Amino acid sequence: MEKDVKKVLISESEILKKCSELGAKITKDYEGKDLLLVGLLRGSIPFIGDLMKHINLPLEVDYMDVSSYHGTTQSSGQVKIIKDLDTPVKGLNILIVEDIIDTGRTLKTVVELFKHRGANDVKIVSLLDKPEGRVVTIEGDYIGFEIPKEFVIGYGLDYNEKYRNLPYIGVLKEEVYTK
Ligand code: IMP
Ligand code: MG
User: Is the CB of 152 under 6 A from ligand 1?
Assistant: First the structure.
């Protein structure tokens, strides 16, 4: 597994420090408001786990599975709901927790869906942002790290469902997906 990593882009300790900073900021911004965290499966699991420990509010958590990648390193341009929320979102303040924003299609679709369902407010926290990959207009409200247009793995992010368990963000060797 480690042998497929070209380089470590963001270390585990840098990620954890960022989770605590983002959590403190979110705590301040949502003070006195209700809050539903919506983790997008499966990539956001490590991030939402570390982040929510630093949000000192009586929040609720739910998960949704939306897919746009089908075993490739290129976005297919299609977004499909695989598992919907169990929570009705009408009137709620939602903070979507995502691993990475690339083309922006996934988040744009999900934000529009929640607004359509009558959410009061929809915001985004993403651990990573690849601004160069954007094809639709969408911005994260809280971003951990901006990264270059490289395919990354680890800390929830996969290639063909593998490498999610790496504790850091790494760049995958090109030879892994060109062979
Ligand atoms: P978007 O809809 O193109 O913004 O894609 C966002 C989704 O694509 C993320 O939730 C990831 O699952 C996946 N993705 C985008 N870039 C990467 C990457 O570098 N590594 C692994 N997954 C990625
Ligand atoms: Mg994802």
Answer: yes
